[in-house]
Every structure is written in structure tokens, then in C-alpha cells.
Amino acid sequence: MQECIFCKIVRREIPADVVYEDDDILAFKDINPVAPVHILLIPKKHVATFFDIAAEDQPVFGKIQAVAAQVAKEQGLEEKGFRLVANCLEGAGQVVFHIHYHLVGGRELTWPPG
Ligand code: AMP
Ligand code: ZN
After folding, report:
1. In the chain, how many domains are there?
2. Is 37 a residue whose pLDDT tops 90?
3. Cα–Cα distance for residue pair 108/49, rounded to 1 Å
4. Cα gap 78→54, rounded to integer Å
5. Could you count the other beta carbons within 10 Å of the beta carbon of residue 43?
6. How far apart are CA 114 and CA 112, in angstroms?
7. Fewest Cβ atoms closer than 10 Å to its Cβ: which of 29, 33, 86, 112?
8. In angstroms, what is the span from residue 30 Cα to ligand 1's centroid?
9. Ligand 1 mutation pick, 3, 26, 28, 30, max ligand atoms within 8 A of CB
10. Residue 27 maps to which CATH number?
């Protein structure tokens, strides 16, 4: 049984504010938001990092981007836009080792990030 916190959210063993779900993908509000809109999109299947993506998993990672756009629209970000970012390994700030994309918006976003 996966001890991963995001797998537990997928199995509804710990609560989350889910905004989108299908057979492959779950999207829920980040518990510690850095912007008015901060949603995490994850594959339901446990994949720790981008380096662990198997060939058969690839379609889900394409679909996540389309789902992100749909969720962003529902969150009112269609005009101003949003950022979709994923951290890979500790050096990039990855804390939870189940691939997740941060969908961030609702305020001015600077580039490059810190
Ligand atoms: P990262 O640093 O890219 O691994 O991001 C992990 C993100 O997961 C952080 O933004 C956390 O606030 C978020 N997070 C951790 N635990 C939970 C949880 N139980 N529910 C929602 N978001 C969480
Ligand atoms: Zn997991």
C-alpha cells in the first residue's frame, strides 16, 4: 500500500478540496496556496518524478495539460492566464514525490521564478 500523501488523497484516505476528477487525473486545491488560485493536478497512478514516467503513462501527461486549461477556465483565469509548473527533485523544490503540476493564477506572476 502506497504511503504517499497524494496517493492517500486519490484513495480519499485524507481529505482534499477536489475540483476535477476523471479515471486518470485528480485536481485539488493546494493546502498552502501561494496565489488566489493554486491547484495541484496529479496522475492518479503513483509516478514519483518525471524520470519515472513509463511509456504507457505518457498519454496521461498530455491530458493533464488540457485538464489544466479546463480547470483554469472554471477558476476564472481565461483572460489573465495562469502558470503550470512542476518541480522535479529536491534541487527544484520537489517535496512530494508523486508528480504534481501547480496551476497558479489570480495575481501578477513574475518571471523568472526564484
Ligand atoms: P512541491 O514542493 O512541488 O513538491 O509541492 C508540494 C505541494 O503540495 C505544496 O505546495 C504543498 O502545499 C502541497 N500539499 C502538501 N500536502 C498537501 C495536502 N494534504 N493537500 C493539498 N496540498 C498539499
Ligand atoms: Zn503517490
Report:
1. 1
2. yes
3. 28
4. 32
5. 21
6. 7
7. 112
8. 6
9. 30
10. 3.30.428.10
